[in-house]
Amino acid sequence: MNRRVAVTGLGVISPVGNDKDTVWNAIKQGKNGIARVTKFDVTDFKATLAAEVKDFDPLLYMAKGDLRKNDLYTQYAVAAATQAVEDSGISGKIDPERFGVYVGSGIGGISTMMTEHSKLLEGGYRKVSPFFVPMMISNMATGTIAIKFHACGVTLPIVTACATSSNSIGEAFRAIKHGYADAIIAGGAEAAVNPLAFGGFINCMALSQSADPDAASIPFDKRRGGFVMGEGGVILVLEEYEHAVKRGANIYAEMTGYGNTDDAHHITAPDPEATQSARAIRIAKEESGIQGGEGVYINAHGTGTPLNDKTETLAIKKAFGESEAKKIKVSSTKSMTGHMLGAAGAMEAFVSVLALRDGIVPPTINYREPDPECDLFVTPNKAVKADIKYALSSSLGFGGHNACVAFKKA
After folding, report:
1. What whole-number distance in Å separates Cα of residue 62 and Cα of residue 51?
2. Contact, 148 vs 155, CB < 8 A?
3. I need a surface site. Which of 116, 207, 217, 353 has the fewest CB within 10 A?
4. Does position 1 have pLDDT exceeding 90, yes or no?
5. Distance of alpha carbon 151 from alpha carbon 125, whole angstroms
6. Could you give the CA distance from residue 32 to residue 337 in angstroms, rounded to a whole number?
7. How far apart are CA 180 and CA 387, in angstroms?
8. What is the pLDDT of residues 281-294, one digit of tens each?
9. Neighbours of 44 (CB within 10 A)
10. For residue 299, which of 389, 391, 170, 366 has the smallest C-alpha distance?
11. Among 224, 312, 306, 298, which residue's Cα sits nearest to residue 263?
């Protein structure tokens, strides 16, 4: 069975806005969501910037009594899922046993872990919250969303570090394509802007140490020196195409391909030969029927780390061929949102879908110094109008995880 898959709903909580239209307008305009950290004192930290969510009101999506039972990453996920389900109009129009949830988190409730560990040290085990375990574990966003929307079908939280939500969307696509569900709430969420996560990423030499928000997350730029941590939750509703058409749903785009590979090379560094990251892109490309680079947009993983960006450039060249790769329009919206970790792939899929719908390629902002090892067209600083027929989004995660999702203009 090979069924078509449509994108019928979008929801987003992000560093550049907390609803679909605000976020898309900010991305098109090149708004930078990066600033000095406000969630804790970074005076003694080498890295001081983050892309934090601003003005988030969880009470728009959850009862007040539920807030103390849910880590912030789950709150972000539920908020984005609520937006996406309402946007899709699917509630009450699908068999609950054919309705699923694939929402992942790269780290899960790490802030809850910190809080409850402090309680343990200060007051003993009796001070630990009875909600500690369900707040901490990485499957709870999926479970909470399934409960809220009575989605009783295939349900799967995925954890593949920075590739988490691309894999979540990709596996949801396959489940619908091959007949295991008629619709799936898919995406990811992360809320890890805290001292522990910062300390770990700083000490593994991953975070940018720039104090200038406009010189920190600078993908493909020769000056790049690390990523900026972001946070948020992003959800797509994927739906079997004919099911969507029959109920008169708005179709943003058609999902057409998904590649999933592993470098099997190193726990944090990408394979510099880009063999398997290229293969993930090639699988998604071929499943979609994409012939060359003309009319293609790639929202790159583009973290702004020295190794990632040159490796990803090589992967795109290997997947498409050198000459066709030069025809592709590429950008990294992490230049605006920072790296949203387990939510990054979903954020970039969201952008890819709307880029297709509107024929607008968003920019890579604050691009100043070209790097000869990153020599594709990276849409520097300003969005461009373009006749794009396909959009791909690639993700590379710690552990060597590679994912690529592909969409076609509706």
Report:
1. 24
2. no
3. 116
4. no
5. 35
6. 7
7. 34
8. 999 999 999 999 99
9. 7
10. 391
11. 312
339 is catalytic: yes
CA distance 112 to 70: 9
DSSP 191-250: ---SHHHHHHHHHTT-B---S-GGGTS-TTBTT---B-BB-EEEEEEEEEHHHHHHTT--
Check: pTM over 0.85? Answer yes or no: yes
Q: What pLDDT digit, counting tens, does each position of 275-330 carry?
A: 999 999 999 999 999 999 999 999 999 999 999 999 999 999 999 999 999 999 99
Could you give the 3-state DSSP secondary structure of residue 81? helix
Catalytic residue among 243, 301, 374, 401: 301
In 1-71, alpha helices (H):
20-29, 64-67
The whole-angstrom separation of Cα 4 and Cα 242 is 8
Catalytic residue among 243, 339, 374, 404: 339
Q: Which of 296, 277, 299, 324 is nearest to 219 (CA)?
A: 299
Alpha-carbon distance of 140 to 301, in angstroms, equals 26
236 and 10 Cβ atoms separated by less than 8 Å? yes
> Which pLDDT belongs to residue 142?
98
Residue 235, both tokens = 């959800």
Minimal CA–CA distance to 310: which of 177, 399, 219?
A: 219
The type of residue at 119 is K
Residue with tokens 């790639």: 298
Map residue 168 onto helix, strand or coil.
Answer: helix
Distance CA 66, CA 78 (A): 11
Dihedral sign of CA atoms 11, 155, 149, 59 in order: negative
Residue carrying structure tokens 């001070």: 127
**Which H/E stretch holds residue 86?**
helix 72-88
Catalytic residue among 162, 243, 374, 401: 162
Q: What is the dihedral of CA 44, 49, 50, 53, to 10 degrees?
A: 100
CB atoms within 10 A of CB 321: 13
